[in-house]
Amino acid sequence: MKLGVPSKGRLMEKTFDWFAAHGIRLSRTGSDREYAGAVTGIDGVSLVLLSAGEIPRELAAGRIHLGVTGTDLVQDKLPLWEQQVEPLEEMGFGEADLIVAVPQAWVDVDTLDDLDAAAAAFRATHGHRLRIATKYHRLVREFLRDAGVADYAIVDSQGATEGTVANETAEAIADITSSGETLRANHLKVLSDGLILRSQATLWRSRVADVADEDRAAMAEVLARLG
Ligand SMILES: Nc1ncnc2c1ncn2[C@@H]1O[C@H](COP(=O)(O)OP(=O)(O)OP(=O)(O)O)[C@@H](O)[C@H]1O
Ligand SMILES: O=P(O)(O)OC[C@H]1O[C@H](OP(=O)(O)OP(=O)(O)O)[C@H](O)[C@@H]1O
């Protein structure tokens, strides 16, 4: 049975600690740079080290049976995610809010309604749509559609998203915030009704992965340890 976990960064170590607290020891093997891992304390489980951003796709393709990644990444990357994966446990780390933020200097813009008005005015003045930089395309589009914000364009940003406003590649952003430091440092403010999603690291089960006869015992044992 295959368990996919983040291969590096803030989620990896906490994932290892979380499983250890449940009697399942995960470790990286080989050199520092080799993406190989082992599971001890339980039989029949193999570890697959993956980018947190790819774990939703691997679960949905059935290539891993269980996987750890943020709610934000699952909901953004998988259409109709409930049909493809089941959340088993919220893990209590990797907590972050996906929000919409605008420049602090926009003193008249504090809500989504204000953003909608600003977007219409922006288009009239500049001849192109107000740009919102994000890597969360699906979640942002759905949220803004439901909020009635129409006149904008998404600009893809896969990192350093808060810098896009100063760099003049976007007028607003939608990104994850945790301490709020990055937003403050980049002179941005969250809209008062601009919370899209509260995310945290979660253990997911693939609803589509085949559980072979020889994997059933391992799956049952993992689930029993979590309970
Ligand atoms: N500042 C933060 N504090 C806590 N959790 C965060 C923070 N920023 C992002 N996260 C969460 O961590 C997860 C993404 O982690 P990370 O950025 O390491 O993944 P990634 O972008 O897929 O990495 P990789 O570079 O391996 O592709 C997301 O679920 C996100 O919500
Ligand atoms: O509210 P804060 O505590 O300041 O954290 C938020 C920042 O953390 C994440 O960036 P990350 O460090 O993953 O870098 P990235 O820009 O490459 O995504 C996120 O994209 C924000 O930029």
Features of this protein?
227 residues; alpha/beta; D-Maltodextrin-Binding Protein, domain 2; five-stranded mixed sheet; 33% helix; binds adenosine-5'-triphosphate; binds 1-O-pyrophosphono-5-O-phosphono-alpha-D-ribofuranose
Give the topology, please.
Blueprint: E1 2-6, H1 9-21, E2 25-29, E3 36-40, E4 46-50, H2 55-60, E5 66-70, H3 71-77, H4 81-84, E6 85-90, E7 96-103, H5 112-126, E8 130-134, H6 137-147, E9 152-156, E10 172-177, H7 181-185, E11 188-199, E12 201-206, H8 213-226
The structure holds adenosine-5'-triphosphate and 1-O-pyrophosphono-5-O-phosphono-alpha-D-ribofuranose.
The site of adenosine-5'-triphosphate (ATP) has 16 residues, from helix 1, strand 5 and helix 3.
Looking at the overall shape, the CATH architecture of the largest domain is: 3-Layer(aba) Sandwich
CATH level-4 homologous superfamily of the largest domain: Periplasmic binding protein-like II
According to DSSP, the number of beta strands is 12
CATH class of the largest domain: Alpha Beta
Number of helices: 8
Percentage beta strand:
25-35%
Low-confidence stretches: none
Largest beta sheet: strand ordering: 4-1-5-12-6
Which structural class best describes the helix and strand composition? alpha/beta
Secondary-structure element series: EHEEEHEHHEEHEHEEHEEH
Strand count, sense and barrel status of the largest sheet are: 5 strands, mixed
CATH topology grouping of the largest domain: D-Maltodextrin-Binding Protein, domain 2
The small molecules bound here are: adenosine-5'-triphosphate, 1-O-pyrophosphono-5-O-phosphono-alpha-D-ribofuranose
Radius of gyration over all CA atoms, rounded: 20 Å
